[in-house]
Design goal:
Blueprint lengths: L8 E5 L23 H13 L3 E6 L4 H7 L4 E4 L12 H8 L9 H8 L1 H10 L7 E4 L14 E5 L13 E2 L2 H14 L4 E5 L5 E8 L4 E10 L11 H5 L1 H4 E4 L6 H17 L4 E9 L5 E7 L10 H8 L4 H15 L5
Parallel strand pairs: 1-2, 1-3
Antiparallel strand pairs: 4-7, 5-6, 5-7, 8-9, 8-11, 9-10, 11-12
The structure holds adenosine-5'-triphosphate and magnesium ion.
Length: 337
């Protein structure tokens, strides 16, 4: 059926920060990945101004009943999910089960990419450069570690720099032990120990399916930090307006930009991403762009989301970004004309 000019019933699925209350015994960044109501309303406005009927469906187990009460033609999914490495896949799997189309990647890709170690195994098998790493479930896993210092320590299944701090770069075995212990005790396993890539950092926006297109390459400069000390940590992300300078397009040679884009697009394809993703890359001392991780559910806050900021710098209105993601999904399902 061609629904190109039809008013569609569009559900938005999401998890809101404000629906969770922080307990004293929880880490300070427990709910960092969740969205704000302003972001959902910004997406809603774009879809409504295109003539669609929009239902804010939220997330959680109650969603199943909400689908029954508000049948929709398609879902705009930005739900991060709750608990475990499959959490981002929960709603897409439910939608597949109910035969409801949705924006973005499928459950396999969402789980695979949330587990940074698994994603790195896949990209490495395709010959895409990514720093050497080891997954650590318990302190004993550090014995016989075969990686070159400096190292970087982060959580294996988290985003939004949860667990990443200004001191996550590690120069010696004793600080490695302390940091890994802290992460295991504070957040639980697994932890990812990676070789530190010390050059400039970039994030790359990609849109599309059969022929993915680079929306932009944005360099992330942490004010006051030389590149080899710069970390886009929780502290920095929370105070991005004071601490970060974004450069898009970046002040780099055409050759380097091309190589960064190539790594990003290859990773997007290797991991079977759909409609949209943001790929984080850092350039090594050897001049090689290294894949750090990919975000198939990139933050869409019109104010602080890296992808919307990048889109703005590339001359795109926020509405065009949301429409493009949505249209890629419609096209995949044969809904667009
Ligand atoms: N191996 C590494 N070498 C150097 N810096 C790193 C490395 N891994 C991570 N970083 C730094 O830590 C930051 C956060 O790491 P990463 O992007 O993996 O985490 P995240 O929490 O998934 O991020 P996002 O907010 O994009 O979801 C990176 O943006 C980068 O500054
Ligand atoms: Mg990242």
């Amino acid at each position: 059926m061609n629904l190109a000019n039809k008013r569609l019933k569009v559900g938005i699925t999401y998890d809101l920060k404000k629906d969770f209350s922080h307990r004293e015994d929880q880490p300070i960044d427990s709910f960092e990945e969740f969205d704000s109501e302003e972001t959902i309303d910004a997406i809603r406005q774009v879809l409504e101004s295109d003539g669609h009927e929009v239902f804010k469906l939220g997330g959680g187990a109650g969603l199943i009943d909400r689908f029954r009460n508000s049948p929709v033609d398609i879902v705009f999914n930005i739900a991060e999910g709750i608990g475990g490495r499959n959490r981002e896949a929960h709603i897409p799997a439910l939608l597949e089960f109910l035969n409801i189309p949705y924006t973005g990647s499928d459950p396999l890709t969402l789980s695979l990419t949330l587990d940074k170690a698994m994603a790195k195994k896949v990209v490495r098998s395709e010959g895409i450069p990514t720093p050497g790493f080891q997954k650590v479930e318990r302190m004993e896993d550090l014995h016989g570690l075969d990686l070159h210092y400096p190292l970087f320590v982060k959580l294996c299944y988290e985003g939004s720099s949860k667990g990443v701090r200004l001191d996550s770069k590690i120069s010696d075995p004793s600080s490695l032990g302390e940091k890994v212990k802290w992460l295991l005790e504070t957040y639980g396993p697994p932890v990812l120990v990676e070789e530190f890539v010390s050059g400039p950092e970039f994030t790359v926006g990609i849109l599309g399916n059969s022929y993915p297109v680079v929306l932009g390459v944005m360099q992330i400069e942490i004010k006051g930090s030389p590149p080899d000390e710069a970390i886009y940590s929780l502290e920095v992300k929370r105070e991005w307006e004071e601490k970060v300078r974004y450069h898009c397009p970046p002040p780099i040679t055409g050759d380097l930009q091309k190589r960064i884009e190539e790594v990003a697009v290859r990773a997007y394809c290797a991991l079977d991403c759909r409609d949209v993703s943001r790929v984080d890359i850092r350039v090594g001392e050897d001049g090689v762009p290294y894949f750090l991780e990919i975000n198939p559910l990139p933050g869409l806050s019109p104010v602080y989301g890296d992808l919307p900021i990048m889109a703005g710098r590339m001359g795109w209105e926020y509405s065009r970004l949301v429409q493009t993601i949505f249209h890629h999904a419609l096209e995949r399902y044969g809904i667009a004309g």
